[in-house]
Amino acid sequence: MGMGQGRGVLGNVTEAAADHFTIRTDAGDVYTVHFSANTRFMKAPERRRSQGEEGNGGGGSPPQPIKASDIKVGDAITAGGEIDTAGKSVGAVFVALLDAGQAARMREMQENFGKTWLAGKVTALDGVKVTLQGGPGNAEHSFVADEDTTFRKRREPVTLADVQVGDMVRVDGALKDGVFVAKSVAVMGAQGGASRPPGDSPE
Known about the structure:
Layout (H helix, E strand, L loop, with lengths): L7 E9 L3 E5 L5 E5 L5 E4 L20 E2 L10 E9 L4 E10 L1 H13 L4 E10 L2 E6 L4 E15 L2 E3 L8 E10 L2 E12 L13
């Protein structure tokens, strides 16, 4: 297909029509978000910072369903579905309305991608260097592991040797001399059906 599934496009609504929105992303790209009767519209719940929550998952209520007409010009939304980056359009499976705080957090995360964190599918393993594909633009990124890097799979400690091509991973770390050095690597395993996002399993 060549179209990304499941990655969201984040932007501010510049036009709200009966069957589509136009949004402008931070990069200045203008995307048309096409929606239909099957598109799920929701308002992202207010996140409560509670129980030392680490910024993913966490307490709070489930997303509230809203109507397309609740989204107005100027609102920040994220749209996911069939994303055609060349044609700058999204066949939206879901559209989520963000409040200013959530939009700022998502922007900050996107800006920090490749600087403090990485996520994607492992495409190559070469010694201590791991190449991933994912993130904004579904580009290739790589990181290196050193003796301080910790690896976990479903909360169990693992090692670099347990990482395989095709695994989905999330990496936290930092750039050193232009190389992303991993501090911690969470391995989600191969992209499969009901894998839950990291951090939302009850402790």
